Amino acid sequence: MVTTDRAWWYRLLQSVVRGVLRLLCRFEVRGIEHVPTQGPFLLVSNHLHSLDIPVIGATLPHRSVAFAARKWEHIPVAGWLLRTLGDAIFVYRGEVDRHALRQALAVLENGGILTVAPEGTRSDTGALQEGKEGIAYLALRAKVALVPVVSYGQEKVFSSLRRGRRASVHVAYGPPFTLPVASGRTNRALLEESTEHIMLRLAAMLPAEYRGVYAELHREEPAI
Question: Are 46 and 119 in contact (CB under 8 A)?
């Protein structure tokens, strides 16, 4: 769970990361006013690059809990940053991690903020991949709002620096939204529909070249 006993350290580290990013790239943040003043809510994002977490973490007004692949737990710097910028829930990729789901629900039930990427893993194409249904399940089960956030341009940071240039990195937050509450037991059809709705929200906030498998389904105002 996220604690406040080291909030000063979190704010200091967040400022340092933000400063480093501004040195490495041209950094733009939009829509921060859409972020609620408190939880619980799910922050849902695209997953483009290993810099996603510091890029979003440097801009988010509140400390949150983030899902991360189990492998990152044992990588010294990355694991430490994940635990410091917001307590991490380390999950096993490619399987249903029921322990991680219980931890995630506990965060939301206690008024926390959970950062998740519906794609489940970093994109191999540089654009949106098909979303997984776990995030829709969490939102429907916990009955919480979702706040969409997209980031792009961070995949060009290191290659641009090698050419003596600074890439433009963009972070955009969108208005909170909710999924329809199921009258009975949550079924596969509802999960699929809800997942597509979430992904279309993200696609609507991204430039066309980042929409990936949702490019043809993209609508300016996605609705269920």
Answer: yes
Please classify residue 218 by burial: count the beta carbons closer than 10 Å to its beta carbon, then call 0-12 exposed, 13-18 middle and 19+ buried: middle
CA gap 99, 107 in Å, rounded: 13
The two most distant CA atoms of the chain are separated, in Å, by: 57
Neighbours of 192 (CB within 10 A): 13
Element (H, E) at 109: helix 98-109
- Would you say residue 220 lies in a domain? no
Beta bridge partners, 169, equal 27
Tally of domains within the chain: 1
Q: Token pair for residue 159?
A: 């290659």
Which tens digit of pLDDT belongs to each residue from 151-194? 999 999 999 999 999 999 999 999 999 997 766 566 888 899 99
Handedness of CA 48, 39, 31, 168 (dihedral sign): negative
What Cα–Cα distance (Å) separates residue 131 from each residue in 69, 162, 219?
A: 16, 33, 17
- Taking the model in full, what pTM does it have? 0.85
Q: Which residues pair with 89 in a beta bridge?
A: 67
Whole domain around residue 87: which residue ranges? 7-206
Cβ atoms of 116 and 138 closer than 8 Å: yes
